[in-house]
């Protein structure tokens, strides 16, 4: 079974950067492409997609409002997917979740229903 564990959250000033990590395990047992996504949930709001990618590489997705500041990448040697967040704003504050799923063509579109396995989340707080 696919498992994902996030890390790397914290407190940062507005304009600063953070890199979140998502360690992935259990992916080798799947015969269809695995996709890994990042989502976030601000206080009092629903969970929204940030970015996602095929775990084997090639296809990525970004929510339009974040693609200029956030970047998703992977390190196959470490079985880890990263979310690099730059120029952070107070409205980026929230709990960030990593999630895993499968996709027949390796694509993903940042929707929660595309992902079945979720981490516990990591808190990101951006101070003004």
Describe this structure in words.
The chain has 128 residues and is mostly beta strands. The chain is built from no helices and eleven strands. A hairpin with a 4-residue loop joins strand 7 (70-75) and strand 8.
Summarize it.
The protein has no helices and eleven strands.
Distinctive features:
128 residues, mainly beta, seven-stranded mixed beta sheet, four-stranded antiparallel beta sheet
Helix proportion range: under 10%
Please report the distance between the alpha carbons of the first and last residues: 40 Å
Beta-strand percentage?
Answer: over 45%
Largest beta-sheet characterization: 7 strands, mixed
> Please, how many helices?
0
Output mean pLDDT: 95
Helix and strand sequence? EEEEEEEEEEE
SSE blueprint and pairings:
Layout (H helix, E strand, L loop, with lengths): L2 E5 L2 E4 L4 E8 L8 E8 L5 E8 L5 E3 L7 E6 L4 E6 L8 E9 L14 E2 L3 E6 L1
Parallel strand pairs: 2-11
Antiparallel strand pairs: 1-3, 3-8, 4-5, 4-9, 5-6, 7-8, 9-10, 9-11
């Amino acid at each position: 079974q696919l498992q994902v564990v996030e890390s790397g959250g914290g407190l940062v000033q507005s304009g600063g950067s953070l890199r979140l990590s998502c360690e992935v395990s259990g992916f080798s047992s799947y015969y269809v492409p695995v996709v890994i996504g990042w989502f976030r949930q601000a206080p009092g709001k629903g969970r929204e997609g940030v970015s996602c990618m095929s775990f084997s590489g090639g296809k990525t997705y970004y929510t339009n409002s974040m693609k200029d500041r956030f970047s998703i990448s992977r390190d196959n040697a470490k079985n880890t997917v990263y979310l690099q967040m730059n120029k952070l704003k107070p409205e980026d504050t929230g709990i960030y979740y990593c999630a895993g799923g499968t996709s027949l063509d390796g694509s993903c579109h940042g929707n929660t229903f595309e992902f079945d396995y979720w981490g516990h989340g990591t808190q990101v707080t951006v101070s003004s």
